[in-house]
Design a protein that fits this description.
This protein is an alpha+beta fold. 28% of the residues lie in helices and 30% in strands. The chain is globular and about 45 Å long.
């Protein structure tokens, strides 16, 4: 599926399915949750699930019966890993678009060939796949393209080139290309197609965070480290 929401693990549907089967689902329902769109009450469903070859995560799903607003996100129970992580995938064919991606809200996603970045903290954490993340970027860029072309034609023309490339990349018609996710909290992931062995298309790096990266994810480095970070013009 090309819509990122369709590619998210739908906890609401999972809960309904498990309830229909009259089995213990492990899904917690919280009625009376505030809808941030209309201000009325909705229902939040939460469950813990284990992602193979990754770790346990908490998936949250909110739905408002009044306005129909839905929202899904992934959290890690406040857990921050000892090291940051960087996953860099070379997409060679259409099947690579199905690789699962977990992106925390502290991660940034980069498409080097397009010189394009999804900044950290610009989206909530979620489960999707490579196709889903590309399709969401494509949809967001298309949203205001008409206004962009009218008000800033030069910028609009450059964005139009990116849109055209993304449209082909999202269906596997413009390969190879590289996509990476860099997460100082260590809570992001791209699926390997070679479990137990090295995946030649996927480079995984675990790194020690800089003081600025600690600060960006809410950790408090030493007083000296904070001062060094504030004095570092590179922002590292």
């Amino acid at each position: 599926r090309s819509n990122m929401e369709d590619n998210f693990l739908n906890v609401g549907n999972l809960a309904e399915k498990l309830d229909e089967e009259d089995e213990f689902s492990g899904v917690s329902c919280i009625p009376g949750s505030l809808c941030m769109l209309c201000g009325e009450s909705g229902v939040t469903r939460m469950m813990t699930t284990k992602i193979p070859h990754f770790r346990e995560i908490i998936v949250c799903s909110f739905e408002c019966d009044t306005c129909g607003h839905k929202n899904q996100e992934v959290t890690f129970g406040g857990e921050i890993q000892a090291k940051g992580c960087r996953y860099e995938l070379t997409v060679l064919n259409k099947s690579d678009l199905d690789r699962q991606m977990i992106k925390s809200d502290t991660a940034r996603v980069l498409l080097p060939s397009l010189e394009f970045e999804i900044p950290a903290q610009s989206q909530k954490g979620g489960i999707t796949n490579i196709e889903g993340i590309l399709s969401t970027v494509l949809r967001n860029l298309q949203m205001y393209q008409a206004e962009r072309m009218e008000q800033q034609p030069e910028v609009g023309a450059k964005v139009a080139e990116i849109i055209a490339k993304l449209a082909l990349m999202s269906i596997g018609m413009d390969v190879p290309f590289t996509i990476s996710v860099d997460d100082p909290s260590g809570n992001s992931y791209i699926e390997s197609h070679h479990v137990g062995t090295t995946d030649p298309q996927l480079a995984v790096t675990h790194y020690f965070r800089t003081p600025n990266q600690d600060l960006s994810i809410g950790l408090q480095p030493s007083r000296q480290a904070v001062q060094d970070a504030l004095n570092d013009p590179t922002g590292r």
